[in-house]
Amino acid sequence: MSYLTDRKRAQGMGSGRQGTTHHWHMMISSVALIVMTPIFILVFGAGFGGTYEGVLAYFGRPFPAIVTALTLIAAVVHFTSEAKEAVEDYVHGAAQKLTLIGLTIFCYTLIAVGLFALARIAL
Asked: What is the Cα–Cα distance from 39 to 27, expressed in whole angstroms?
């Protein structure tokens, strides 16, 4: 039988002082994705199904390239933030640090490769 009170069990497990900031960042990126995703689908759909040269010419225009780049960045940043929260909740110790480093490297690499591919297409 445990003689610990609820307060004693919870002591030291309090606020990390980051919850509200993280919540607002996620809300802002969610709203940005709600707006950008349909626009991206329309832009991507308009360029889909053409010839190779036609697609290159379409994504060579500024608007489709900018919409694609912004959607890529917002989606990967949103994914990174959520994945970091999952890792912090379920992985502990050295494995947590290594997983967070790997996740960060993966996400920044994904953004870099996506933007490089888009630049190659657009330029």
From this structure: 19
Rounded CA separation 40/92 (Å):
37
* 52-59 helix and 94-122 helix, angle to the nearest 10 degrees: 100
pLDDT digits (tens, 9 = 90+) for 42-91: 999 999 888 999 999 999 999 999 999 999 999 999 999 999 999 999 99
Distance CA 101, CA 14 (A): 26
On whether the CB atoms of residues 84 and 107 are closer than 8 A, the answer is no
Question: Cα dist. 63→13, 68, 102, 110, 123 in Å?
Answer: 48, 9, 33, 22, 13
